[in-house]
C-alpha cells in the first residue's frame, strides 16, 4: 500500500514538473513574440546568429538597467 501512495505522489510530481516546464515555455514564446513584434523584426531575416546576438543585447541591457526590484 505504501508503494502505491509513493507512486501516486511521484506521478503528481511528474505532472506538476511538466506543467511548470510548459508554463516556462509559454512565457518564453510570448516574450520572444512580443520582442519581435514590438521591434518590427521580420521572421524571415532572423537566423540563429541574429537571435543569439539580439538575445545578448537584450540581456545586457536588462542587466545594466535592472533596478533592485525584479520584473
Descriptive notes:
It is a single chain. This protein is mainly alpha-helical and 71 residues long. The chain has one domain. Helix content is 77%, strand content 0%. The radius of gyration is 19 Å and the shape is elongated. Keywords: Coiled coil.
Which labels suit this protein?
71 residues; 0% strand; mainly alpha; elongated
Short structural description:
It is built from two helices and no strands. With 71 residues, it is mainly α. Keywords: Coiled coil.
The Rg value, from CA coordinates, equals: 19 Å
Question: What's the number of extended β-strand segments?
Answer: 0
Terminus-to-terminus distance: 46 Å
Unreliable stretches covering 5 or more consecutive residues = none
As for the number of domains, it is 1
Count of DSSP-assigned helices: 2
Instruction: Note the beta-strand portion.
Output: under 5%
Q: Which sheet architecture does the biggest sheet show?
A: none
The global form is elongated
Order of helices and strands: HH
Mean pLDDT: 90
- Structural class, from helix and strand content? mainly alpha
Query: What helical percentage do the residues reach?
Result: over 70%
Amino acid at each position: 500500500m505504501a508503494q502505491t501512495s509513493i507512486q501516486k505522489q511521484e506521478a503528481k510530481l511528474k505532472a506538476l514538473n511538466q506543467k511548470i516546464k510548459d508554463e516556462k515555455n509559454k512565457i518564453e514564446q510570448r516574450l520572444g513574440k512580443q520582442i519581435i513584434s514590438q521591434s518590427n523584426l521580420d521572421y524571415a531575416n532572423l537566423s540563429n546568429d541574429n537571435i543569439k546576438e539580439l538575445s545578448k543585447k537584450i540581456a545586457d541591457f536588462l542587466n545594466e538597467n535592472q533596478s533592485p526590484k525584479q520584473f
